[in-house]
Amino acid sequence: MEVRVMSRPAIRITALLAAALVTLSACATANAPSATPTSSGSATAAASVQPTHPVEFVISTAPGGGSDLYARAMATIIETKKFSPQPVTPLNKEGGSGAVAFQYVYEKTGDMHYVMITLNSFFTTIITQKLAFKATDFTPVANLALDPFFLWVNDDSPWKTGQDFINAAKENSLTVAGTGAKQEDEALFRRIEDTMKTKPFTYLSQTSGATVAAAVAGHQGGVVASVNNPSEGLTLYQASPKKLRPLCAFMPASPTTPIYSTLPTCSSQGIPIDDYFIMRAIMAPPGLSQAQQQFWIDVFKKVYDSDEWKKFMSDNALQPSFKSGLEFRQFILQYQQLHQDIATKFKWV
Amino acid sequence: MEVFGQLAGGFAVALHPINVAMLFVAVVLGLVIGVLPGLGGTSGVAILLPITVFIAHGSLPGSDATTAIIFLAGIYWGALFGGVITSILFNIPGEPWAVVLLFDGFPLAKRLGKPGLALASSFVSSFLGALVSTILFTFFALPIALKALEFGPAELFAVFVLSFATLIGLGAEAPMKSLAMLALGLLLAAVGFDTITGEQRLNFGQISLLSGISFVPVTIGLFGIGEILASAEEQGIGFVENISAKLGLRDVFEAVRELRKRLRLVLSNAIIGFFFGVLPGHGATAASFLGYGLARQYSKNKENFGKGEISGIMGPQAAADSAGVASLVPMITLGIPGSPTSAVIMAGLFIWGLQPGPVLFIQHPDFVWGLIASIYLGHLLTFILCLLAVPLLAMIMRVPYAIITPFIVVISIIGSYSLNNSMLDVFITVIFGLIGYWLRKMKYPLAPLVVALVLGDSTERELRKALIAGHGSPLYFFNSGLSTVLILLAVVLVAIPLIRTIRARRRGAAPPAAVAHP
Amino acid sequence: MRPYQVATAAAIVMIAAVAMFDSRAAFSPSAGTQVGDVGARWYPFWAAAIMGVASVVVAYRALTTPQGTEGAFEGARSLFAVLKLAVPMLVYALLIAGVGFRTTDFTYSIVPPFGFYLATALYMGLFAWWLGRYKIWWVAAITIAFPIVIFAVFEIGFRVSLPKSFLYTSGLLPF
Asked: Which chains touch C (3 or more CB pairs under 8 A)?
């Protein structure tokens, strides 16, 4: 934990600097020149292939929000099944749509005692906030699931299919809601706008997926649609009186979860988008050795294979999808490009 | 009525020995978590989430998911009560809604030397508030949650304006200084990340400032640290506290007597708190400020507010605790958490394999009604524990200066650090400690700053969302009956004290002094 | 009191000016702003403007109305009493984090981070010894007991991580 402190008398600095330089030069030169070594990335930690003290599982959202739920479910499985020799403790570093968490983990270069759960903000935020690093700088661990998007409307809506929605959107600028600004929800709406040549959506940014669903259910601010994940819309879909209704799923095939199994895909209704999901992926700081990376891949593979995670995925209508190694790297590159294109097209930067 | 049968069934579940035992453990843990700096209800519940998996899966004899929810909720009730203790004793808020207790709770405890009475007043009003809220929860949960869905940006903006409006006149002896502090609070609330456009602002390129300047480190600095600096100067190093902490329950009886005098205030604030708590977001915090504002507006002794007025403790506390209970309503009925803590409890439901919402009432009635019954039991238990602890807690203020003063600094630093695990927050606390000390000396009121800092963010967000939804037309605020009524109510609340002041000035009399400088 | 009042108001005006400068884009909405949105800068700009104007009025009043003649502090003794608290507090916070600076490539450490526990031990001990004038074994007991109790409650009991010292990563200390 290092803090920048403003200038001190120049003479004292140079004297202390000389001393500090000598002690640190050994440690500093050991690391890659482009990286930012800190005093915590010491030689002993870098040498071991498994954690030697408790691990921080960094979460980029507030407790209870977004990926916090997924991270805590994973941490609980790791803890109850003893998949790691050291405790893996969830730690919320919210702020700036993930920027604070990414910066924090980025600065832990070469230290395997940090892992981070990421979603698509890992791409959007790094691009739109012009952060000093790229998504590919981090050590990729694994993707554990893909969270699909559905197109949701209020149950009293006249629209029955995705096409009805598109027709209405071509006539008027519709008000829609989503989590955050210039994040995955808005990205998907802008993609729809772009692909289907609709009028620009009026986009209301909400603070969480639950409040997005609530906005559609309560016609808050004239909101008529959202692209909530299946789990976020489920309760209001099952409510009596029913409040929400999915029109279609942005997936290549209908979901397998029983309650949604009759839901058609959006591409079958003339909205040809079936390749966009929220990733539920694990990243580690830059500069981990292959053995260290493999340690975390193994831990999260065990999580993925556990019955608890399988049940969790089916309860929340997540698409099981384990990706690591080369396959995961390609996925990261593909999503980075996709978000870069949207950001450029809609002048997000 | 059907409800009574279900509630009776719920009590049968909640009174199962294992459930009672876990409720007791949870309430004690919750109290400890509430008192410990930096460990509010939200993080406390989050930390203990893994343990509940064992409980839910029957690792304890007879335990199931109902035991787990009773356990988690019990922590929340404990924290709701415990969070006010540090506010009152050390001027350090444990929870957002305990901020308002800095205005009168700490002055009553320290300046008037009655920590026991301050604590007991807060506990009795908490209990009554929670009781009212739980009764409303039992009977009207679903229809109220459905109504709350209709609160869009315009309505929520009106609600926030309403909270601000009741506080007009706070620090009225120096109106320009109050205005400057109010604006400073709004400005600090704006630092960081704009959630509507995703732009960075006022962070001067610092990524760590993107999480914004939270009110927690700022209020800990302004009030906690600022206070010990100020008292060091007033009384010199090594002063002895003039506090009468006799062991006994006299304070409790006095608090009950005071409560009876203010029954109408506490009950009406509890009902208002319930409706605020059902709204998503910072319902409890807004409710606590509104509760304080209403207590002050309709008090005969306005000039006592800010100096240790008991209504200034009971009013907001009843509203806040009631809102805290109510925040579970939309979570259980519709799957929409009303507060960060209820969001974490909802995460628990998912992890145990349950789905919140109406289905829960049908598929797992034991779970829902067991939880509701445990709210009654949990609050009763917390209340008794707290009252018994009052004399002991009051004793804390007699710890020698050379230990208690650095100790307050230490817990201030833990409190601000563990909010976001950020050293930046620690420096914010230290710097605002010095700033708060100086502003106090220069007779700037700090209450408007804190209120604006806590509510500023949400107010701006809802205002701008309403403007976007209305395509820029301010008429949008009158587009629904609900928002029209709320806006008009806010206008009236702003106008009444202003007109009164102007009239009083015309008559040449002194304006009704509305003094609340903490 | 007058110079202090005016200086305080002037400082607030300065903050307002910086904030207004940072938010100058309030009048030129950035690309991608939606119809009806006043933009990210509008709100901080006007908050700062109100703050600035209010402080100018405060300063003007302080200059034109009679003010108390006393200084900000009642003598050196009271100033000293405040400094006795403020300075150790600042040093304590700096010790926790360590003092250093960072270039794009390296982090230079002038004072290594002592972490929360070592710094707290020193801080509590200093007060017990210096202001409390306790006997040396009491000082030692406080110095050792406080951090250990906090460690037990936070790190072990609730798994809350507090800042660690420079000896932590090398495995010499558990904190």
From this structure: A, B
What is the average pLDDT value for chain A, to the nearest integer?
A: 86
Q: What are the chain B neighbours of C89 within 8 Å (beta carbons)?
A: 225, 409, 430, 433
Alpha carbon of C123: minimum distance to chain A alpha carbons (Å): 19
| Placement of tokens 């939880």 in the chain | B371
- Residue A6's contacts (CB-CB under 8 Å, 6 or more residues apart) are none
Band (pLDDT 50/70/90 cuts) for residue B493 is confident
Instruction: Decide if A52-147+278-345 and A150-269 have a common fold.
Output: yes
Count: domains in chain B: 1
In terms of residue numbers, what domain contains B93?
A: 2-506
Q: Is residue B400 part of a domain?
A: yes
Model confidence pLDDT, tens digit, residues C90-125? 999 999 998 887 766 677 788 889 999 999 999 999
Is C128 in Cβ contact with B194 (below 8 Å)?
no
Q: Does some domain include residue B518? A: no
Helical packing angle, B401-420 and C115-130, nearest 10°: 160
Average pLDDT, chain B: 86
Instruction: Write down the pLDDT at residue A22.
Output: 35
The ipTM of this complex is 0.93
Please state, as a whole number, how many other Cβ atoms lie within 10 Å of the Cβ of residue A24: 18
Residue A93 to residue B152, Cβ atoms within 8 A: no
Q: Which residues of A touch B195 (CB under 8 A)?
A: 180-181, 205, 207
For residue B208, name the pLDDT band (cuts at 50, 70, 90): confident
Strands A139-147 and A319-324: antiparallel
* CB interface of B with C, residues 143-182, below 8 Å: 176-177, 179-180, 182
Question: Which residues pair with residue C102 across a beta bridge?
Answer: C107
**What share of chain C has pLDDT > 90, as a percent?**
53
From the CB of residue A76, how many other CB atoms can be counted at a distance below 10 Å?
Answer: 23
Decide if C40 and B197 are in contact by the 8 Å CB cutoff. yes
User: Model's pTM, two decimal places?
Assistant: 0.88
- pLDDT, residue A31, reads 36
State the DSSP string of B456-500.
HHHHHHHHHHHHHHTTT-GGGGGSSHHHHHHHHHHHHHHHHHHHH
Q: Which residues contact A145 (CB under 8 A, 6 or more apart)?
A: A70, A280, A313, A318, A319, A320, A321
Count chain B–chain C contacts defined by CB atoms under 8 A.
183
| d(C-alpha B165, C-alpha B293), whole Å | 8
Residue A11 pLDDT level (bands cut at 50, 70, 90): very low
Instruction: Tell whether B228 is within 8 A of chain C (Cβ).
Output: yes
What is the model's pLDDT at position B235?
A: 67
CATH number of A52-147+278-345: 3.40.190.150
Question: Within a 13 Å sphere around the CA of B12, how many CA atoms are in the beta-carbon half?
Answer: 8
Q: Which two tokens stand for residue B20?
A: 């009672």
Task: Check CB contact under 8 Å for C169 and A203.
Answer: no
List all chains that touch chain B, counting a touch as 3 or more CB pairs closer than 8 Å: A, C
CB contact under 8 A, C90 and B237: no
Q: Does B151 touch chain A (CB under 8 A)?
A: yes
- Cβ distance C100 to A2 less than 8 Å, yes or no, reads yes
> In whole numbers, what is the pLDDT of chain C averaged over residues?
88
Q: Which structure tokens are listed for B354?
A: 């349950």
- Chain B residue with minimum CA distance to A219: B150
Please work out, in degrees rounded to the nearest 5, the angle formed at the alpha carbon of residue C111 by the alpha carbons of C106 and C115: 100
What residues of chain C lie within 8 A of the CB of B38, using their CB?
160
Contact call for C96 and B413, based on CB within 8 A = yes
pLDDT at C172: 77
Say what the pLDDT of residue C30 is: 62
- pLDDT value of position C43: 92
Under CATH, which number does the domain A150-269 receive?
Answer: 3.40.190.10
The verdict on a CB contact (< 8 Å) between A99 and B207 is yes
